[in-house]
Amino acid sequence: MEKQVDVAILGAGSAGLYAWAQVKRRTDNYVVIDGGEMGTTCARVGCMPSKALIQVAEDFHRRKILEREGIEGGDALKIHIPAALEHVQDLRDLFVEKVLGGANDNMGDKLITEYAHFLEPCLLQAGDQRIRARRVIIATGSSPVVPEAWRSFGDRIVTTDDFFELEDLPPAMAVIGLGVIGLELGQAIARLGVEVTGIEQLDHVAHLGDGDINRAAIETIGRDFALWLGHAASIEEAGNGRLRLTAGDRAVEVDRVLASMGRRPNLDGLNLGAAGIELDDSGVPRYDRHTMQIEDKPVFIAGDVTGERPLLHEAGDEGRIAGFNAVADTPVAFRRRVPLTIAFCDPNIVQVGTPLGQLDAATTLTARVKFGPIGRALIMGRNRGELELYADRRDGRLLGAAMVAPHGEHLGHLLALALHQGLTAHQLLHMPFYHPVLEEALQPALRELASGCVSPPAEPMDLQPL
Asked: Does domain 2-144+264-326 have CATH number 3.40.50.300?
């Protein structure tokens, strides 16, 4: 017997929960289907536990600056790794509990803890239940990528799904894949005393497309652990339970490997062909990112399963859009946010707006500033890094930015707001810049952009006439 519902949401992660919040405003005839572990990727294995570990590592690392400030005894400080990991797990459990208490526990019998797949368009099988839905939202998330050949090494290969269950850290680890999470965790465990080797087959880290900022990131983060770029890694047994990793002409023996090579959309078990859904060249359905509708079908998609921007705020927006449109008579197109990515390593690596490589060099101005002489950064002992801004040569309108910057998370948000509002370099210069603050680093770059555009203002750049 079939259960008839208005909406079936596949997945109770971040995107699915945001979709649920929209759907339940319009109908109580829905189901949320998820056969996996409850609690969202962000809370369980992503954003939150990683930041907790980063904070511990950063606090411990700051002991190295104490002596220059006249504070004695910093060298005597020690880290008890099992206790530190237990602290991270306690915080992780708190975040997961908040998710479960705020959403999953309130769904009652509308939550089906099974995996679902399509039998035909809008007909789903979930365990022993058949569910026919007017609309379906696919928000099934993603899973870590691990080459099949590496699975024979057992628990010596760790992914982010496993990492935060560790009770201790080994003397030596390799991190394969230096995107955002690999760079963050690699630096964190290195600062906790693990000998870390980072390996990335590309020539850049944290998905940086700006060559100068990429160079600055490699130089700065490379002070904490070895970065091997430009070669893929191979793994073999080294004896005594250790693994030997080779990349190009370099090799290292380690106790464990953190495989941080990206995540793959969870689509394989959905039997999308039965729903008439085809995949594009990147292995995901074709959809409109402003409506989240898959082609012209009564099916919507949201979150990491799209493979586009695996970020919580993007998953939230996509879930809201999908949920809204799943109960709307006609899908509504929504404006998407200015792209913003942050790697919470130290210093932060931030990208805002359009990457430099996607801009027309003939119509784009760039301006770069180093944090070395910035007063506030010097006082904090965090004066490493660089920032580069991009603007339209015609009017100075900001187009994007990339930076390796102390507390760059805040600078990134300021610039994302400026891009969202379509501000020019001249207009940003009119805002107050307190002294001394890190935001002052923007001023020389903004002045360079303002003076280089086709029609620079005649009045002082930092002042706005009445």
From this structure: no
Question: Where are the domains positioned within the chain?
Answer: 2-144+264-326, 148-262, 340-452
What is the band of 1 on the pLDDT scale with cuts at 50, 70, 90?
A: confident
Report the candidate in 260, 205, 190 with the shortest Cα–Cα distance to residue 45. Answer: 260
Contact in structure between 319 and 364 (CB atoms under 8 Å): no
Q: How far apart are CA 148 and CA 264, in angstroms?
A: 14
Q: Which two tokens stand for residue 406?
A: 């102390």
Identical fold at 2-144+264-326 and 148-262? yes
Give mean pLDDT, residues 209-224.
94
Q: Which two tokens stand for residue 258?
A: 């953190």
pLDDT-wise least confident of 19-23, 100-104, 243-247: 100-104
pLDDT (0 to 100) of residue 106 = 77
pLDDT digits (tens, 9 = 90+) for 376-388: 999 999 999 999 9
- φ, ψ of residue 32 in degrees (nearest 5): -115, 125
- Reduced to 3 states (helix: H, G, I; strand: E, B; else coil), residue 349 is strand
What CATH number has the domain spanning 340-452?
A: 3.30.390.30
- Mean pLDDT score, 318-333: 97
Alpha carbons 163 and 311: distance in angstroms, whole number:
19
Q: From 3.50.50.60, 3.30.365.10, 3.10.450.50, 1.10.3720.10, which CATH number describes the 148-262 domain? A: 3.50.50.60
Q: Give residue 396's identity as a one-letter amino acid code.
A: G
pLDDT at site 464: 75
Residue 436: φ, ψ to 5°? -95, 130
Question: What's the rounded Cα separation, in Å, for the pair 319 and 210?
Answer: 31
pTM to 2 decimal places:
0.94
Instruction: Find the radius of gyration of the CA atoms of the chain.
Output: 24
